[in-house]
Amino acid sequence: MTTCYDLQPTNGKFKHSIDRPTERPKNMRKTTARPTDQMTSGATHESIDQPTNQATVHISNQSINQSINQSINQSINQSINQSINQSINQSINQSINQSINQSINQLMDR
């Protein structure tokens, strides 16, 4: 089993100790390697986990953004369609009522 170290931030930055994986700097915790760590000789958890986490966060953000955009577009489309339908119905009703009223008035005049 390989031994590697989780990095702790030092002054907001991470120090990588890839050259001497068996020496543990004071700011690192000793942990047991996971199978992915064993494939890269002397690598730390941080050097392997960081890109994976960034990719996961990127995919997660993409998914969230798609859901938000879908919801916004759906709402906008519903509003537009509702407005168009309302306008069309008003025009049709107005035209029908006008025609009926004209017909009634013509009949009354006779």
Helix content: 55-70%
> Which value, in Å, is the CA radius of gyration?
35 Å
Overall residue-averaged pLDDT value = 73
Shape from CA axes?
rod-shaped
Number of strands: 2
Beta percentage is 5-15%
Description:
By secondary structure, the chain is mainly alpha-helical. It has one domain (3-109). It has helices spanning 35-39, 45-109, and strands at residues 3-6, 29-32. Strands 1-2 form a two-stranded antiparallel sheet. It is rod-shaped and about 105 Å long. The mean pLDDT is 73.
Short characterization:
This protein is mainly alpha-helical and 110 residues long. It has helices spanning 35-39, 45-109, and strands at 3-6, 29-32.
Question: What's the structural blueprint in terms of helices and strands?
Answer:
Layout: E1 3-6, E2 29-32, H1 35-39, H2 45-109
Antiparallel strand pairs: 1-2
Biased composition (Basic and acidic residues): 16-26
Region (Disordered): 1-50
Biased composition (Polar residues): 1-11, 33-50
Properties at a glance:
single chain; 110 residues; 2 helices; mainly alpha; 7% strand
